[in-house]
Amino acid sequence: MRKTIVAGNWKMNGTSESIRALLDGITAGVPVVDGLVTLVCPPAVYLSQVKEQLGNAPVVVGAQNVSAQPKGAFTGEWSLEMLQDLGCEYVILGHSERRSLFKETDADVADKVDATLTAGLTPILCVGETLAQREAGETLAVVATQIDAVVQRIGIERFASVVIAYEPVWAIGTGLTATPEQAQEVHAAIRAQLTGSGMKVADKLSILYGGSMNAGNAAELLAQQDIDGGLIGGASLKADEFLTICAAAAESRK
Ligand code: PEP
């Protein structure tokens, strides 16, 4: 059975005090279920604090981005070695905010996925279409192109260690959510694409949905056959809401 992953992307939010309180709330109620991974991705400057506070709690830590460069004169960046040093296990890559605001290209994202796998961390590769692309009927082609750029770079064998997050850009932070049917269609298409590219274990790949997932819509989304968890922004900043999503994810494994 595939892993179910509930990942909180805290983006650029919080202070040491509010993050401590949020994490206290999450660790107080996080479900422990075989095959369910609960992940938090704080701002990089709070990774150490979060890791230390977690201790042995059943929550893993990830970063929201990383440099593909190993070290050197890259002011403002951080490396995979640093993330390893801090005990990070996952890295979100190619988030639509990185692609649109920081101009990351498919090639940049592929470099980062490659470097992350080489370092032994798990990349969460974000893909998704804009509203204009959806309305033009280009959703599956756009997502396929974003994924293929990474497949071409790393090879299909190594793709088995990647997690995908399908995040329609129009649903991120907007309160709009893909319907379960819309999301399921794209998730199934991604799995079929990877099988078509020669991946023997596409049925084992975790594909998360992201885009205004919340306590009210999580259960229905997570019940879809090809949806293996969520990448959650806004709703991950409230412990009770995040825990409701975690509980729905635990339920979806039964
Ligand atoms: C995200 O940032 O990946 C995300 C899905 O945000 P939100 O849940 O707020 O739409």
How is this structure best described in words?
This protein is α/β, with parallel strands linked by helices and 254 residues long. Helix content is 41%, strand content 15%. The chain is built from 10 helices and 8 strands. The protein has helices at 16-29, 47-54, 80-85, 96-101, 106-118, 131-135, 139-154, 180-196, 218-222, 239-252; strands spanning 4-9, 36-41, 60-63, 90-93, 122-127, 163-166, 207-210, 229-232. Strands 1-2-3-4-5-6-7-8 form an 8-stranded parallel barrel, surrounded by 5 helices. Helix 1 runs parallel beside helix 2, helix 1 (16-29) packs parallel to helix 10 (239-252) and helix 5 packs across helix 7. The longest helix is centred in the last third of the chain and has 17 residues, at 180-196. The chain starts with a strand and ends with a helix. It binds phosphoenolpyruvate. Phosphoenolpyruvate binds at residues 9, 167, 172-173, 210-213, 231-235.
Taking Cα atoms only, what radius of gyration do you get, to the nearest Å? 17 Å
Stretches with pLDDT under 50, minimum 5 residues: none
User: Globular, elongated, flat, extended or rod-shaped: what is the shape?
Assistant: globular
**In which range does the helix fraction lie?**
40-55%
What does the main sheet amount to? 8 strands, parallel, barrel
Strand count: 8
Q: How many DSSP helices?
A: 10
What is the residue-mean pLDDT, rounded to a whole number?
Answer: 97
Q: Give the SSE string.
A: EHEHEHEHHEHHEHEHEH
Q: Gap between N and C termini, in Å?
A: 11 Å
Structural category: alpha/beta
Fraction of residues in β-strands: 5-15%
Named once each, the bound ligands are: phosphoenolpyruvate
In the sheet with the most strands, the strands line up as: 1-2-3-4-5-6-7-8
